[in-house]
Amino acid sequence: MPAGPRPPYRIAVSAADTPEEVVAKASRVRPTRRQVAWQRLERTAFLHFGVNTFTGLEWGTGDEDPDVFQPIGLDTDQWARALRDGGFELAILTVKHHDGFVLYPSRYTKHTVASSSWRDGRGDVLRDFTTSLRKHGLKVGVYVSPADENQYLHGVYANGSARAPRTVPTPVPGDDRPAADTFTLHATDYGAFMLNQLYEVLTEYGPVDEVWFDGAQGRIPPEKVERYDWDSWYALIRALAPDAVIAVRGPDVRWVGNEGGLAREDEWSVVPVKDSGNGSVDYALPFDAPDQGSREALADARAVAQYVQWWPAECDVSIRPGWFFHEDERPKSVEQLTDIWFRSVGRNAVLLLNVPPDKRGLLPDADVARLREFRQRIDRELPADLTAAPGARVLRRGGVVTVDLGRERQVDRVRLAEDVARAGQQIESFVVETRSDNGTWTETAAAGTVGASRVLLLATPVRARHWRVRATGARGKARFGEVGLYRSAVG
Q1: CB-hemisphere CA count at 13 Å for 300?
Q2: DSSP assignment letter at 459
Q3: In this structure, what is the dihedral angle of CA atoms 144, 148, 150, 155, given to the nearest 10 degrees?
Q4: What CATH class does 31-269+312-380 carry?
Q5: What is the mean pLDDT of residues 276-290?
Q6: What is the pLDDT of residue 178?
Q7: Helix (H), strand (E) at residue 83
Q8: Half-sphere exposure (CA, 13 Å, Cβ side) for 154?
Q9: For the domain bounded by 386-486, which CATH number is listed?
Q10: I want to staple 293 with a disulfide (CB 3.0 to 4.6 A). Which of 120, 248, 271, 350 is the partner?
C-alpha cells in the first residue's frame, strides 16, 4: 500500500482550545525528515570569520576597509580535518556577519573579499570552505546575517521602502550567469538584497544543509527599523535548498535562549509558536522562559499561540569567550565542554560549538587539540553500550524497555531516545529501575522529558543484571527508540 500523508509538524491552536485539547494536539505533532536528520547530528560547528577577526571587534561597523581582511595562511582543509576529528558532521560559516562584509565575491555589494588585495582580489572563502567540507565528509551550513551595517551606510538597510514584488535573481551589469528560473517574491529594498545574496549562495556553491539566521537588528537610530522579509527568504531557501533546515529564526530549529550552550532540564521539541510578522516563526512564550513546552507552558501560551510546532532547540556557545578570534583568549577546558555536552545533547538539543579561525586563516593549535580531546572524552564517557554486549537481551513493550545484561555489570550512564520520527515526543516523566535477586524492582534514577536524546549521569555506578526503563507520564503512546547502558571509562 502507498504511504499515507506525513503527520503534521505544526497544528493550529487558539485561545478557545482547552488545556487538554492543546496537549492532545501537541501529542500529534511529528518532525519533518529534515528535522529528524538535523537532530541526529547532535554536534554542529560554527566558524565566525571576517573583518572582525582583524579589527578585534565582535560587532563590526560596516565602514571597514576591506583590505584589512588578509588571511594569508588560509587553509580550510585544516578546518575540515579538525572538525571531523572533533566529531562534527556539519559546520556553519559566517558568510556575512552584521558588518555586511561578505566572504565571497557577491555581485550586489563591494564590501566583499573581492575588494581586498588578499589573493589579488580573487579570493573566495566560501568556495574554499564548501570544497573542503565536502572533501572531508562534512555537511555545509551558511550564516547570512539579517543585519547589515554596510547596507545601512549605503541607504538600503532600513530605508523605509515598502514591500513590493521583486524578481530574483536581479540582473546586474555584466551578469555572466546562465539563464535560470526566476522568482517573484515580496520584499523591501534590503529584503531583495538579501534574496539576491541567498540566491548566489544557494545556487553557486553546491548543496547546503543548514541556513542560519539570527534576529539581529542593525545598530541604527531607534526610529529606523528593517522589518525582515522572512516569508520570502524562507520560500527561496525551500525552493533552492529543500533539504536544508532553517535556523534559528526559521521554521525548523529554534534558539535555546542563551549563549552558554545549555538546554533546559526538560526541553521539549514541540512548543507553542506565533507569527510575529512577515511569516516569522516566533516564540509564543519569552525566548528565555524556563519552560517552553510542558502542559503548563502550553496552557499559558494559549492566548497568543497560533500553532504547536516541532521546533527543536539548538544550543550555541563559543569555545572561547568571544565569537571571533582574539589573541588574548583561550579555549574552554575539556571539563567545561563535556559539561556543556551533557546539558545540551544530553537534554534533547543539538550543540552548536563556535570555533573561530585566527588571523592566519587557521584554527588555533590549542583549539584543534581541545576539539580532539573533547571527542575523546565523550567517547570515554559513553564507551560501549552494554545492551549490545554478547549475552544481553532487550525486551521492548511500548513505554517499557527491560534489559537483561546476561550478568551483573556496573552502569553509571543511561542514554535514551524516543522514536520521535514515528511517535513524536510524548514522555513527560520516566524512571530507571534495577531488579534484585528476589525480583523486586528498585528505582535507580528518575527524570522528566526524553525526546531525541536524553543522557543521565548516575551519581555512583550501580551494579545489576536486570534493568528497566519505564515511562511514568506521557501525552500519548510512548515509544522508545534507544535505551543504552554504559560504564564510563573516565576517572
Answers
A1: 14
A2: E
A3: 130
A4: alpha beta
A5: 95
A6: 87
A7: helix 76-85
A8: 16
A9: 2.60.120.260
A10: 271
Q: Which amino acid is at 308?
A: V
- DSSP label of 169: S
Whole-number CA gyration radius for the chain: 24
Q: How many CA atoms lie within 13 A of 146 on its CB side?
A: 24
Please calculate the CA angle 429-433-435 and round it to the nearest 5 degrees: 160
**Domain boundary assignment for the chain:** 31-269+312-380, 386-486
- Rounded to a whole number, what is the distance in angstroms from the first to the last CA of the chain? 53
The grid coordinates of residue 187 equal: 520584499
Distance in angstroms (rounded) separating the CA atoms of residues 114 and 450: 48
Residue 1 predicted with pLDDT over 50: no
- pLDDT per position as a tens digit, 186-207: 999 999 999 999 999 999 999 9
* Cβ atoms within 10 Å, residue 235: 16
The pLDDT tens digits for 291-309 are 999 999 999 999 999 999 9
Q: H or E stretch including 235?
A: helix 230-240
Cα–Cα dist 152/159, whole Å: 8
The label of the residue with cell 553509571 reads 412
Cα separation, 329 vs 321, in Å, equals 7
Q: Nearest CA to 161 among 239, 104, 229, 230?
A: 229
- Cα 58 to Cα 80: distance, rounded to the nearest angstrom: 24
Q: Which residue has the cell 560559516?
A: 93
Phi-psi region of 119 (alpha: psi -120 to 50; beta: other; left: phi over 0): left
SS3 state of residue 375: helix
Cα distances (angstroms) measured from residue 367 to each of 123, 140, 329, 374: 25, 21, 11, 10
What is the sign, positive or negative, of the torsion defined by CA atoms of 265, 140, 194, 165? Answer: negative
Which residue's entry shows cell 510512548?
Answer: 478
Query: What's the CA gap between 100 and 149, in Å, rounded?
Result: 6
The sign one gets for the Cα dihedral 384, 385, 389, 391 is: positive
Q: Grade residue 4 by pLDDT with cuts at 50, 70 and 90.
A: low
- Among 30-39, 220-229, 416-425, 450-459, the range scoring the smallest mean pLDDT is 220-229
